[in-house]
């Protein structure tokens, strides 16, 4: 079955705009004038629509998004009272839920970002409540959750994490970083494979609606990988996925065999392209908003603190040498300039130890980068995965980050233009559910360094702005490359999957997946 799409403006990475595209079943067969040389079974007149390859999300947490969607919806609420009301309503509607877990609240609505357990107690005091902050490095819990977790003034901060406290040492109700968050969540009922398949299904549906047909889950625990494999077998996984297994300083050695086993299972699926478990995620530091990003210069609000380094250099090198040798792609979360430097140093040292291969290491976020480290991305072949929707002066940067690091450093975040000039490849990731998965909300932000949709029109460090065409490429072609799927997707070239978006007046009119319409705008 051949379909000719005609009379459109097709945009595809480095090609000139062309007007015709022919697909056969799920694959693009010809583009431009040559597309018209074939006989087509159907011809679709696109009436001058703008057509681009489907978006690909190079850093996201689809299962977390699905899990969060199953709790109270507090995204975008602007006051504690609104959050209290949403949590109360959810608790009343779900009387049998033993734990109430949801997200994500904007921590910037409270100066300093420390939320109090008693505020949640006012609405729910019979069951534990855990709310994730938008940075997903912070939780806010009620007193019941503290009590069930045994967290008191005597509890020490776990390594790499902090418990916000009153002057007398008793916990306030805000905990930061995975090790502290785990003190609470390890007591919550475990997610089941069924609930995680439901989360995957939810995420796929939400992604397809907004034109994303492939993504990388970049915080994949073993049970989550099992859920992905099951969802691929059952047909519930309807987008293409890469998985990045989470390695931690205490688990990376013990997990090697099981990660290999899960990678093998993903390769043996009937549709071997659907799921690839070929990447390994390392969290090197925290977040600027929480004062936990690892910096080369101290924080202003606590001059003794340079943030948190989750890995020591030796352990990190040992771990990445081991996983690189096993053929895993590295996916390193580094936000502060010291974390970015640590990541680059580790990659450089690893490349001297292990034999050469097409490894495409990724540093994700790279919010602050020392000048001398900019050219190292290109030199070492490191992809910078950046969150386009973060490239404007949002309330978190203004209220929480600037006071901690000062305006000068704050304004040096997201140096896209400098990275490009220094020879780096950039790819995009939404970091959903930390921020929206909708590419059309994000694509113009690095171009204008503003977010008019949220009323912020003053450009933020406009010298770092990029072009719209670059921005589109970073959300399509370059993520396909990051995912080792550039032969399969990311551009509209012959031989690639027919995943594309039909845009009219800057809105997605329809989404084609594998040559079929998956969504038509309402
Ligand atoms: Zn993330």
Spell out the key features of this protein:
binds zinc ion; 522 residues; single chain; 32% helix; Diaminopimelate Epimerase, Chain A, domain 1; Urease, subunit C, domain 1; five-stranded mixed beta sheet; 22 strands; 3 domains; alpha/beta; 17 helices; TIM Barrel
Question: Strand count, sense and closure of the main sheet?
Answer: 8 strands, parallel
Range of helix content: 25-40%
The count of strands amounts to: 22
What's the quaternary structure here? single chain
State the domain count.
Answer: 3
What best-fitting shape do the alpha-carbon axes yield?
Answer: globular
Detail the poorly predicted runs. Answer: none
Strand order of the main beta sheet, please?
7-13-14-15-16-17-18-19
* Overall mean pLDDT: 95
Number of helices, counting only DSSP H or I runs of 4 residues or more: 17
Which ligands are bound?
A: zinc ion
Main CATH class of the largest domain: Alpha Beta
Tell me what portion of residues adopts beta-strand conformation: 15-25%
Quickly give the structural class. Answer: alpha/beta
- The CATH architecture of the largest domain can be named as Alpha-Beta Barrel
